[in-house]
Amino acid sequence: MEQWLLYGVLSLLPLAALSGFLMGRKHRKGKQDSSLSSNYIKGLNYLLNEQPDKAVDTFIDLLTVDTDTVETHLALGNLFRKRGEVDRSIRLHQNLIARPQLSSEDRNTALFQLGLDYNAVGMYDRSEKLFKELLADPVHKNESLVQLLNIHQLTRDWDDAAKVAEELQSSLGVEQSKPIAHFYCELAQQNRQEGDVKSALSNVKKALAINPDSVRASLLQGDIHLQQENYKQAIKSYQRILQQDIAFLPEALPKIADAYDNSKDKTGYKAFLDKSLERGAGVSVLVELSKIVQDDKNDRAAAALIGDFLQERPSLKGLQRLIALHIEHAQDSAKPSLELLDGIVEKLISRKPRYACHNCGFEAKAIYWQCPSCKEWSSVKPIKGIEGE
């Protein structure tokens, strides 16, 4: 506790020194104010009596806002916000803005900092209003667009998020097609929940128009068609993933199987799986294909298919499928060992993450279109290799 107080006192000494300097300068100009002198002494007394909070307020009051002290006020505001004392930062920036002698440039800078203060305490409606006002200022326009984009994402205002991202892309030349496509997908999700299929499909089409490689948009479009029992269109939407990012195909496999099954097209489903493997699909596709081979031929043929694949691309999931095929035909003495091995592999698979963020390394068992850690869109991908696909 004593160390903290000492640190607080020491951290305020520069502010006290600055206040003293300003007071001395006014004195040299013949404008000394007795109240200024008494307040300065009062601030020092607060420091000596280990009351740093009161000392801060006293010294801030001594800093008359003029062209020489604006930067000092702004620096103090940043310091307070970083230390979590946002209420003080807000009061300081509001005090700055209220000064009639402040230049328009300094006022806009103070407005931007006040917007950051409001963001820090979750007052997004107030910060949004300030950043929108600053869009008219060329100096703060791009920074304000970035802040507005963050606010709209936090408040899940996807329509405005898309508009701001498009303006940011136009203004800065920074590619925003991936996040914009996700914003339209978010809108489509909301439309589906509200039962508005037409609007959902419309927003999905916008997502694909902006980013033709949007796997999420293809999945959503396929899901909507599948729900509407439009199986051919569902299959067409899901098949697009082969060109977009084949690593995400396992996300759609159960739905693709459902669509082909409802279409009574087992041959078409097998052809699709064969085509997917030729293009480099992972073990999930192989497992599905092995089930068809098992039905059409026998367990031995399915096991041979899995074994050939594992020689080239070892996989826990493939090993588990191979064990399951052998258990049925194993001798009674061998079954317990195979079942034990199957249980071990199952535990290994269940404990391992299926997805990882290529930007920050975040790992998860479920897909996240926006990384919960670094907030990047489209950075979370399926894990490949022996523990993945």
Automatic annotation (TrEMBL):
Residues in TPR repeats: 181-214
Coiled-coil regions, chain positions: none
InterPro entries, per the entry: CellSynth/LPSAsmb/PSIAsmb, LapB, Rubredoxin_2, TPR-like_helical_dom_sf, TPR_rpt
All copies of domain LapB rubredoxin metal binding, residue ranges: 355-382
TM annotation in the entry: 6-24
Membrane topology: Single-pass membrane protein
Residues annotated for Fe cation binding in this entry: C357, C360, C371, C374
Record has NADP as a keyword: no
Chief location of this protein within or outside the cell: membrane
Residue ranges, Cytoplasmic side: 25-389
Protein's job: Modulates cellular lipopolysaccharide (LPS) levels by regulating LpxC, which is involved in lipid A biosynthesis. May act by modulating the proteolytic activity of FtsH towards LpxC. May also coordinate assembly of proteins involved in LPS synthesis at the plasma membrane.
Family that this chain belongs to: Belongs to the LapB family.
Name by which UniProt lists this protein: Lipopolysaccharide assembly protein B
Organism: Kangiella marina
